[in-house]
Design goal:
two-stranded antiparallel ribbon; about 425 residues; 14 helices; 7-stranded parallel beta sheet; 9 strands; globular; alpha/beta; about 55% helix
Length: about 425
């Protein structure tokens, strides 16, 4: 019995050990199942992850295709825009569609005109006018703003203005000036061949760096500068006179001719040359706080060209006319699209019409806010709305009594 009891106790121990072993095995099996499940889950997630990666790659490929398409479309649009403005025919079509009646051609832009040909060939000039006429446009004037600037350049601006000239004369101020004078001479002949009567240009500048008298200007410095300026321009003015064309200097900051006084100083030194005239642009007067309406009263006989351009001057406690070297958007004085600035164009058009100005109203556009496309669209209508059809009879002609001179004497008691 004792032996049986002992065997039973040993059996219980074996059972317990077996049970413990089975529990351990069961736990290990559970662990294996868990790991297998984790692996399966991980595989599933990995599979899903790979699927998501494949989807992302597919989306990237689609985006790349879209980006390529957009880039191609942008390139085509850019090319289209370049083509729209890279020839006289294209830009004339564009301007005509916006309602403009004429164009002023910058003579330095070879895409629009070959100045050498225009100065030598009347048939070439007829072709230019024919191109414009095809789009119901006229040629208003030629301009030589860049070449005129180079007739007189102070050494301080040599590098800055060098890019205005052809590459052959850059870095050589003497050759550059000779090229500029030759360009002006050709512009006179080209204007004549094109049947024009007015020409737009800049005077250039020798005295401009000394516009503010600090340090004190040496006695005679400004006078010497204007003497030299007149000396350089006199032969050019004579050439234009022979061509029957007025030289209209745009009165402009940065030029020696930047207001009425400086224009008069120059006019005196070229002997009151009949071809020495003015291009009126009120925007440049606004920016220097000059009375642009009185300017018409004073110089209306000399104003032969008109740029319709707007501007505003908003001085603060921090900046005024000089505008503190700020970019255009932050300047107190800045150019604006037509109607967005401070120029009273109703009064400008009224005064010019009252004085019998019969030239073109030419849009010159610059704005630091509005796009040039919008400015061009709005500009045509703005100018058309301001053009005045000058009356040929007095508003009170209906009340004319029809009396003659003898009756007038009787009314005045004159025998």
């Amino acid at each position: 019995m004792s032996e049986s009891i002992k065997n039973i106790e040993n059996g219980e121990k074996f059972v317990k050990i077996s049970s413990d072993n089975f529990s351990s095995i069961s736990e290990q099996v559970d662990g294996v199942f868990k790991k297998v499940n984790d692996i399966a889950q991980s595989s599933k997630e990995q599979s899903l992850g790979i699927d998501e990666v494949n989807k992302a790659i597919h989306l990237l490929e689609q985006n790349n295709q879209r980006t390529t398409l957009v880039a191609r479309q942008s390139s085509e649009i850019s090319k289209s825009l370049q083509e729209e403005f890279n020839s006289l025919d294209n830009i004339a079509k564009w301007a005509s569609n916006l309602g403009y009646k004429g164009v002023q051609i910058p003579s330095w832009d070879g895409r629009l005109i070959d100045l050498d040909k225009a100065s030598n060939s009347k048939s070439y000039c007829e072709d230019i006018k024919g191109t414009l006429s095809k789009h119901n446009l006229e040629l208003t004037e030629l301009s030589t703003h860049l070449q005129g600037q180079l007739v007189a350049v102070h050494p301080a601006y040599d590098i800055a203005f060098d890019g205005f000239a052809v590459e052959d004369v850059r870095g050589n101020p003497k050759a550059r000036q000779e090229w500029a004078v030759d360009q002006m001479m050709k512009a006179a002949k080209a204007s004549q061949n094109l049947g024009l009567t007015a020409h737009a240009t800049f005077s250039g500048a020798l005295a401009w760096p000394f516009v503010y008298p600090w340090p004190q200007r040496p006695s005679g410095l400004v006078e010497d500068a204007f003497e030299e300026l007149a000396k350089r321009w006199k032969p050019i003015l004579d050439q234009f006179d022979n061509a029957g064309v007025d030289v209209c200097y745009e009165i402009h900051p940065g030029e020696d001719l930047h207001d009425g006084i400086t224009y008069e100083m120059f006019l005196e030194r070229v002997g009151n040359h009949p071809r020495c005239c003015m291009l009126y642009d009120p925007s440049h007067y606004v920016l220097q706080h000059l009375d642009y309406l009185s300017n018409i009263d004073i110089y209306h006989e000399k104003i032969r060209m008109f740029h319709v351009k707007d501007a505003e001057l908003n001085p603060t406690g921090k900046q005024g006319v000089y505008s503190g070297f700020q970019p255009w958007l932050q300047r107190a004085g800045r150019f604006r699209s037509l109607g967005d600035g401070q120029v009273d164009f109703k009064s400008v058009f009224s005064k010019l019409s009252g004085y019998g100005f019969d030239g073109w109203a030419v849009l010159e556009w610059e704005c630091c806010i509005k796009s040039p496309e919008q400015g061009a669209r709005e500009g045509s209508k703005f100018i058309q709305d301001h053009i005045i059809e000058v009356t040929e009879k007095a508003f009170d002609d209906f009340a004319d009594s029809g009396v003659d001179k003898e009756t007038n004497k009787k009314l005045l008691g004159i025998n």
